[in-house]
Every structure is written in structure tokens, then in C-alpha cells.
Write a structure and sequence with these properties.
Radius of gyration: 17 Å
Number of strands: 10
Structural class: alpha/beta
Number of helices: 10
Distance between the termini: 9 Å
Strand order of the largest sheet: 5-4-3-8-9-10
Oligomer: single chain
Largest sheet: 6 strands, parallel
Amino acid sequence: MARRRRFNGVEIKLVAFDFDGVLYEGEHGIRFADEFGIGDSMRAIYEKMLRREIGVGEALRMGASLWRGIPVRKVLDAMARLELRPGVDEAFRVLRDAGYRLLLVSCGGSNIGFLPIKRRLGFHYVYSNQLRSRKGVLTGELAGPPMTPERKAKVLVETAKREGVTLAECAAVGNDSLDIPLFKAASLTIGLNPTCELEKYAKFSVDISDMREILGYLTE
């Protein structure tokens, strides 16, 4: 059986994963927006955010508003059939067997949408944007603050405290600049096909297509 990795002499006990570009190759929100007929509007918001014309928090609120009127069941069904990165199921089985506590924290998507992913991969914690719903239909509103990059780091700190582990015992896996605060908080940081911005903060930069390749960085 694989064992948890030691890094700088400390055993890693908790691993935080981003979703888009990590467990899923691409932007799942854009893909589903196309499916529900709001793709062009979603892309326009995303592009404004990339050009820094609007902040991440504002972009997330604007994006949430586009989902008004869409049944929760349709979102869950779409996520349940989403094709994740090859090897992800086996990789997470190994990580669970090694005794890791697993955290999914994502700026994209929602706590509602990620429920099928939580069940499938065995995440202990899932944090994203909390979409409000009424009578099984999305209202287009966030039920809490948007999951900004800074909040992602805060979530890791709070989850580590809840689990009774130090940040020196935490790892983070991400792919782009939205993961920079998360990487600053964690000890062992793995950039998965990382952007140039994130690569500067990654202890390891890995170009992979199969998720099982990451096990060499998290297990012994």
C-alpha cells in the first residue's frame, strides 16, 4: 500500500485540489453554459475577468446570475456525466487508501454541482460558490461570498485547523494564477500543466495527461 509523502521532513496529511485544469481538462462551467444556452454570455464575463476589467468576485456573481431558472437536477445530471481527466478514479483510490484527507476548493462551479464529484472521488470537503436555489431551481444568486483566490487559501487554513494539521502538513494541486494564494498557504505545491504565473510558486511543475502520474509526488 502506498504511504503518504514526506516533504521537508514532514508527513503530508491533507491535499487541496483545484478542479478546472486539474481534475477536468478545461473549464466545465463554460462547457455546461453552452449546453444550457448561456455560453456566449459566460465567455464574455470570463474574458472581462482575464482582461482585469472586472474582479474575480464580480465575475462570479455575474456568472451566477446567468443560471437563474435552471433546475438543480439538470446541473447534477450534467456533472455526473462529466468526463474527468484519465486515471483520476484510480489516483484518488490510492490517495484515500494512503490515508489522505482530501479537499476540493474551486473558484469555478458550485457546491451543488460538485456533489457528484465529492461522492465519486471521496472528497472529505468540497468548497466552491454556494448557489441559492428555491423549489429545486437556481435563483441566480450566491448564498455566500464568492470563492475568490484569497478565499481558497482561507478555506485551506480553516480546513487544516479543523483536521488538526499544520500548513506544513498540507499540499495543494492547481494549474493557474487563481491558485497562487492557495500555493502560498500550502507547503508541498504541485502545478499541474501550470501557467507561467503559477509555476513560480510551485515546488513541482508537472506536465501530465493521466492523473495517476501525480502519485509519484504524493506517495512513497
